[in-house]
Write a structure and sequence with these properties.
Layout: H1 2-21, E1 25-29, E2 33-35, H2 39-48, H3 52-79, H4 84-92, H5 98-112, E3 116-120, H6 122-144
Antiparallel strand pairs: 1-2, 1-3
Helix pairs in contact: 1-3, 1-6, 2-3, 3-4, 3-5, 3-6
């Protein structure tokens, strides 16, 4: 199990970073305007446009919570049950799918608006892979203790 964790945790971290920085979706509006935003660009764009509350909510659930959960998994894998990583991992377990749901809602809203067509790009797939590998690593870590 330690070998699987040793493979899953770096993979989750790498996929998460790529999911934040690579374009998530391609939005085509009016056949000639194309946007390919990454998650970090979406949050910073919301912040710049004065949508502070929305930027904070998206940033918390899509960037901060998953990052803390991955960090907690790394700490828990090293420190075991007695460390703060295990407590953080347990507390964040309730929020584990919230990040994916939030990104899915953004894609759904873009596709159903009628003004834009949306195509998923590698950033979304890396983000989903990060979520799945994080959940798998958390399950393996919880069973091995």
């Amino acid at each position: 199990m330690r070998l699987i964790l040793a493979l899953l945790l770096p993979a989750a971290t790498t996929c998460f970073i790529l999911g934040l920085t690579l374009p998530l979706i391609e939005l085509e509006r009016f056949y000639f305007l194309t946007d390919r935003p990454a998650l970090l660009a979406l949050v910073s764009g919301l912040w710049r446009d004065g949508e502070t509350l929305l930027a904070v909510v998206v940033g918390l659930f899509s960037i901060a919570f998953p990052a803390v959960k991955i960090l907690a998994l790394h700490v828990a894998a090293v420190a075991g049950r007695s460390g703060i990583g295990h407590a953080l991992m347990h507390a964040l377990g309730k929020w584990s799918m919230m990040d994916v749901m939030l990104v899915a809602l953004v894609v759904f809203a873009a596709k159903t608006s009628g003004l834009a067509s949306a195509i998923t790009l590698p950033g979304l797939w890396f983000y989903a892979a990060a979520t799945l590998t994080t959940a798998l690593a958390a399950a393996i870590l919880a069973r091995s203790r």
